[in-house]
Amino acid sequence: MDSKMQQKKYTVSDSYFWKITISLALASFFVFASMYAVQPLFPIFVSVFDVSVSQSSMTLSLTIIGLIAGLIILGFLSDRKGRTMFIKFSLIGSVVPFLLVPMLDSFSALLLLRLLQGFALAGLPAASLAYLNEEIDQKSIGVATALYISSNALGGMAGRVMTGYITDHYSWEIAFYFLAVIGLFVLFIVLIMLPDSRFYQESNLSFQKDLAGFLYHLKNPSLLLVFGMGIVLQLSFTGVWSFLPFHLQEEPFSLPLHAISYMFFAYGLGVIGAPLAGWVAGYFGLRKVRMIGIIILSLGIFLTLSNSLVVLVIGLCVSCLGFFTAHSLTATSVTDEALHHKGSASSLYLVAYYIGVSLGSTALAPLWENNDWIGLIIFVGCLPITYLFLVRMVSKRFAKK
After folding, report:
1. CB 3.0 to 4.6 Å from 324: which of 54, 106, 273, 362, for a disulfide?
2. What single string gives the DSSP state of each residue in 288-314?
3. Cα–Cα distance between 132 and 129 in angstroms, integer?
4. How far is CA 237 from CA 38, 96, 206, 275, 359, in A?
5. What's the number of CA atoms in the CB half-sphere (13 Å) around residue 96?
6. How many CA atoms lie less than 13 Å away from 370 in the CB half-sphere?
7. Do the beta carbons of residue 152 and residue 63 sit within 8 Å?
8. Residue 399: CA atoms inside 13 Å, Cβ hemisphere, count?
9. Sign (positive or negative) of CA dihedral 11, 333, 204, 75
10. Beta partners for residue 10, in sequence order
11. Whole-angstrom Cα distance, residue 84 to residue 146?
12. Mean of the pLDDT values across residues 184-194?
């Protein structure tokens, strides 16, 4: 313990700071690329495996269900067994399904492996932020965290673009093998560069106390509204992107898959939107800027109703800017609303966020199948604004009490 006290945490001037930051940024890039890589492939799975749109979308939603389970279980174990082992486990567990899936002809096997992959993916987000906070000096933590979170958005964008492009020119199996190669490279870098924890201290809290911390937040009405906001924002946003490939393959666009995959470059605005939102909120207040972000999100969604490809692309870019603005500020508000157990409150928000991903990819499939793009967009465009109005009404009632 004395030696730990004498050691200093890493700063931007230390080589180990950059080893940690680069390792986790690469790991984050690959994990989020793996998570969302199947989204542009939904129409391909419908054709190749002869399944319905909703069944095809389960290749993402089951991964998210596995991720949610992993966040709870691996987050609990990470506090007791260490950090780096779960980061490495996450990468190994992400690579293996990409090697196995192309060898199998069964869609059920594909779904099972995606579920297991989702569980493994959770090892990184469950351990990485805690690891950063333990090993890096508070004056430098902002740089490391910003690079890590930016890699989330870049990875999600790159995974979609790469798989769409490679599948259109070669095959979806080649796309999976390509992702596996990238994953092995990232794993090699992490095994070499990522240092062991120096300041990790095993949690002595019982499972009952951890559970009590979770239940505490579920009794807080203000936090429940924030968790609900996370679900609604992601449900609407994911709903647009999950069914966009089907829409753009139809008239009047009739786009090939590689052209559709380029649409995901709009996610690049997330890298700009999140830090910009934090800066603007410092001047005008979190709630005002979040409300503007939600309105921008809905406006962008409604623009995708246009039959003009240019207007539709503008709508996608606008919706990305609005979503990442609203999401980043909603995530920030969690620690403001939580009076105790702030870590478990953030974990619950992540769970709510990914529930929204799962619902947006599969639960909306009947709406798409029965009402096409117009019905889907009217619903997901109105939902965030409606929920915002509900939150304001409920908040006013609590304020009067």
Report:
1. 273
2. HHHHHHHHHHHHHHHHTT-S-HHHHHH
3. 5
4. 16, 29, 37, 19, 11
5. 15
6. 6
7. no
8. 6
9. negative
10. 136
11. 20
12. 95
Calculate the alpha carbon distances from 245 to 31, 45, 60 in Å. 22, 12, 14
> What is the three-class DSSP state of 401?
coil
251: its two tokens: 């008239």
Distances (CA, A) of 14 to 19, 97, 105, 144: 9, 36, 49, 12
What is the torsional sign of CA 350, 247, 258, 113? positive
Asked if the model's pLDDT at residue 36 lies above 90, the reply is: yes
Residues contacting 200, CB < 8 A, separation 6+: 82, 83, 131, 134
Question: Cis omega (within 30 of 0) on the bond before 252?
Answer: yes
Tokens representing 386 are 């409606």
pLDDT at 206: 67
Stated length of the chain? 401
More confident residue, 122 or 340: 122
The amino acid present at 230, given as its one-letter code, is: G
Q: What is the dihedral of CA 151, 53, 172, 124, to 10 degrees?
A: 30
Which residue from 287, 295, 296 is spatially nearest to 333, judged by alpha carbons?
287
CA dihedral 98, 99, 100, 101 (to 10 degrees): 40
Which residue from 258, 14, 240, 21 is spatially nearest to 151, judged by alpha carbons?
Answer: 21
Q: CA-based Rg of the chain, rounded to a whole angstrom?
A: 21
pTM: 0.83
